[in-house]
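Note to self: keep these together.
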Amino acid sequence: MRFLATLFFAAALGACSSGRSEDAAAPPAPAPNNVELGVPGGPDGLDFAPLAADAELDLHTFGQGGTHVLVGVRTLGFGIRAYVGFTLTDETGGNEIDAPPPVRPQLFACDDAGNVCDLVPVTIMTGGLFGPDETRSGLPVLIHVTASTDAGASGEDEREVLVSGADLAAP
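Structure:
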C-alpha cells in the first residue's frame, strides 16, 4: 500500500511540475470582458479594424444633410449580444453627443467559439458636436464606448481621433 501511495505521489508531482513549465511557456490569456474601439475595414466595410489613437475619421452625410462617423466595436468574453453606447466629446469646445445603448442588446458577428465578437459598422450622428459655421476638419474628438451584458460583463474603451469634413461641402 505504501508503494502505491508513493507511486501516486510521484506521478502527481511529475504532472504538476510538467504543467508548470508548460504554463510558464504559454502566452498570457487575453483579459476577459475586453472592449476595443475600431472602424469598418475590409473590402466590404464589414470587418473590424483597430482604431489607432489620433486616427482621422471622415464625416459622412449619406445624402441626408446630417453628419455621421462610422466606427466598430470588438468585444472579448461578452458573447453574441451586448448593449453598446457611445459618447463623443469635442475636446476644443466641450460639446458632447451621447448615443446611449439600445433597449435590447445588439447582435454581434462572432468567431466560431463565440469569444471574439464584432459590431461593425456603427453609425453615430454627430449633429450638435460642432456648429454649422465651425470648421469640422481636424477637430479633436474623444470617442468613448461602453459595453455590457445581461450576465454582468462590462467594459469600455476610448480613443482621441480627428474628424475630417474634407469630403463635405464647406459650411
